[in-house]
Amino acid sequence: MELDQLERESSTQETDLKEKTKPYLTALIGWSLPAIEAATRLNRPFVVVGPPDFESYAEKHDIAFVGWDFHKLNEGSDLLYKKLKALGAELAVPLYEECVEWAGALNARFREEPRIFNRSLLLRDKGMMKRKAQIAGIKVGVFEEARSIEDVKWFLKRVNEALLKIDGDVYDPIHVKPLDKAGSVGHLAINTVEDVEKLQDQDFPLLMESHLDGQEFSCEAFVHKGKVRFLNITEYIRLGYSNFVPASPSLEEKRPLIEKAVQQLVDAFEIEYGVIHPEYFITPDGTLHFGEVAARVPGGHIFDLIEKAYGFSAYEAQILCSDPNTTNEELELFFPNPSDFEGYAGCLMVHPHTDYVKELNIPEELEEHPFFEKHDLFTPPQGKVAERIGFGNHYGTIFFHGDDSEEMRRLLQLYEEYNFYR
Amino acid sequence: MAQRTEDLVERFTHALQALEKAAPFAKSRYQTDVYQEANRLLRTEDGLEQLFHFAHQFEDIGVFQDGPWENAENLQPPLVSGSLKAKGVPMIIEILSELRMLAIAKGAYTHPKVSADMAEEFLNEVLALNLNLLFPDASESARIEKHENDDLTSEVFQFIASYLSTNALTKTLVSEITRITAQRPIMIKRVVSMIRMGKEMLKSDLEYDERESLLTYIEAIEGPSPLSKQYRDLSIYRSRLRELSQQELRSECVAMAASMRKTGLTCPHHATLLRVLSKKVPTLIPYALQLNGKGKANLEEHQDMVTQLIKVAIFPATCQSIYGLALMLERGVLSSSPVMPGLRRLIELDILPDVRTALLKTVRNGEGMTANSILVAGVISVLGQPLGVGQGFNPTCQAARGISLWAQHAPGVLLELIPRAARDGDIDFTFEGLPIHSKDLTGGLAPELHTELDPVSLVLVPHLDRIYSEMMTKVALRGEDGHRWVNPAFYGDWVSKGFSTVIDPLTGFINDFSGFVRLFYATHHPDYNDDYELIYPNPVGIFITNVRGKLLGFHAVSIIRIAKDPSDQYRVYFYNPNNDSSQNWGQNIEPSVMGNGEQEGECSLPFHEFTSRLYAFHYNPYEQGDAYAVEPHLINQVQQLAKESWGEDHTWV
């Protein structure tokens, strides 16, 4: 690979780089093997910006790499742009939550459009995000930012007063979550005043919101030039545990409504390129409440499920949509019709139900079920031999694939209760 | 699992193909599926066979890439069983790796760095080290320590063995046994269980040499003499002994002793024989021990004491101490004045309950032994085989080294310490004017002692370990390597006061390495040290490196002597308390335990190779030779070996 000498001193780079600028480098912000694979498959020249720990691995495999600590923010942060620019990067694709504003800042400089950075910040502060949505007329719950335990108690009290609860009534819960963490990280439901005391000083500031009823689902919208080019709807069985793609017919029925809402969101947030991953609640009468939105690879193996069901690589789609130079024809050729899917793809993320795990127990009827595709659960190693093994998640996931969304739902519900680890 | 094997093979094939197609950097994403499908196949009847069909492709496809099993040439047979016992992924990869080795051994796959012979050798060693799993249920302990994966592991080993020659495996086993017994350890449990396993091999077709050497070892622990072969049962053997003529009895003695001297191993019958002799025909004892002139003289001088010791301590359960007894007599230890009263004291010692329990645990139930007998037998072993003391599975090399040193040069000290620990539960040392009592201390390097130890170590190590640690703590902040003061205080005045270390204790840097090497040559190498002979063992610190020369940690050994080997090369002969001295230290530095002029229990290295692993030693400041005279090329040679091994983990200034 012609890009593997990136780390050289600038003096030696000067001459080579003129030529290397030509390939129009894509900077993948965050270390993600599937994203690197996708970029390779697309035959795009790319550079990975990731935690310095990955440097030796990247070097071993000839992956152009810039080590970067995303949590360090100082006057030297500009260096990343300079490094990438010098390499010939023109475009940044965020892969993880904490990479979003970095990619925003980089793209703002690449395209000389400072507001891109501000937009990315909207996606990194859940309080700002809600406010923006509200201003744009998107239906959200009641929310406030809290700076202390007192704020939370007050909010809980006022929300329930508004719901006309009187002394002795069971409170409606509120939800609190960190302003800038991915998905359900740090999310906590608060039912009583006592629950509030569980919060620690370091949890603040946080976002509080009223409880939203309805079915929760997420969308993965691939946006190019401000237009949603493909919308996937992921049905949640239980947030953080199980979901499947595409959504069941009863939810897919609402697709026109959902498409409209997502486009509204894209317009409101002035999102031009890339992928967004909003979460909504939908009530039986078809009212949509906006939960939150992220602009990165979603969790829950959703990209894998999209690939299984629709046959295209969502990672490739993300890269294509992040690039302003991708043509309309390319995108039309790339994305299938949303109704054109090959069965439902679902997965169950297995968390042990006990504190101490000893052995793995996979029921035979699970593996023999025609929907069973594969799993990556292993008996947890014991004793001294706890070597690093070449995959990321430690408890594992079970993948299903089949043609009936009801059966999929049943399986996911059934095995979520199952004790795989004892 | 009820799925059909063909379906599983197909699933495995798919997973393997996906991995093959994956870009090199992305292999880890697809390895999981391969491991999963391999695991499913392993649980089927001929799963191993099915997997083996693919084994020649594993490496090229990337099954092991970026993991600990990536480089076949770096794999080590002793680590295999650990991975196989671990559940989950390590076990699966380990099995796949064994199949890869088998494919290499069988010529199905040509590996750039591992030849077919090397692969076969690797597998033979793995099997030799895991005979209990190759022949399951052959031993009592295997049953007790049975592990969940054992059935599968046995299957794997049997599968591999079916492709290899039993003869080669036996050869490996015999050389492993020879290597261990050459060091004459006091604790022989491991080697005995290997020999027992080896019995199974006799059932298969072996070549003459292999069969004979194996038989020698089997007989050594089961009965090498005509009568003991005939009468396995000890009580029958005993009554038959009484019927033998003097002549027959003598050949019985000679056969027993010959086997013991050859292998360093004894059998329970030997104890019975000795007990009968001591009562009926004490004149035959020298034959039963194959004593040399000095031994005979010592026996004659202390006949009563020896008779008493046999009566008290030599039982079938403690038969290994017979070898210690023979060597003790030849070392003339009984003539050292504190020894006889010291031993007598132990016979009647009032042993603390927990010590008693620990001692009784070293023999099987129903042997009818007393803790005192076990302790005395242990002392006999230690006094006879000071270099046979081992640290077992504990990080307590210092304590083992102390016991060994005192057994060699200060049996009186040892016989003082033992009753203090066994009876009083306390040992006290004076360090720089202050008393240190082990009973007041906690912790140490081995707060939970692994108890597969000889009786003396079992009693002393918990105390010595804590005292040594306490001494090191007291000097920790002096800005110099604490061993300088601790070693002489702990081991005694036999340790010289001069001390040199290669690591700067404040910075951790390597400082003036050539000066360090020069000083070692000038104080230890006969060509430069004005012919001062090493009198007492010198406790030195060494860097332990693995087969690739990578630093593993620090270790304590004692230099016993420095002398020319049969090929006229100066070697350092040393005592390694880990009792597995012939490990490979990388860079072709392999300590040997026999064949290079080693005495029993010693291991040795050429002088410069030993020096390259040294990090601290003591010397007598008044006995220095000519440091300036050491040739630069010698120093460069040592320095290069050091820099390219443990030195890579240190800063050199």
UniProtKB/TrEMBL annotation, chain A:
Pfam family, one: ATP-grasp_4
Keyword set includes Membrane: no
Domain ATP-grasp: 130-323
Alphabetical list of SUPFAM superfamilies matching this protein: Glutathione synthetase ATP-binding domain-like
InterPro entries: ATP-dep_AA_Ligase, ATP-grasp
The keyword ATP-binding appears for this protein: yes
Gene3D superfamilies on file: ATP-grasp fold, B domain
Cross-referenced PROSITE patterns: ATP_GRASP (PS50975)
Keywords linked to the UniProt accession: ATP-binding, Ligase, Nucleotide-binding
Entry protein name: ATP-grasp domain-containing protein
TrEMBL record, chain B:
Recorded superkingdom: Bacteria
Record's protein name: Uncharacterized protein
Organism: Pontibacillus salipaludis
Lineage, highest ranks first: Bacteria, Bacillati, Bacillota, Bacilli, Bacillales
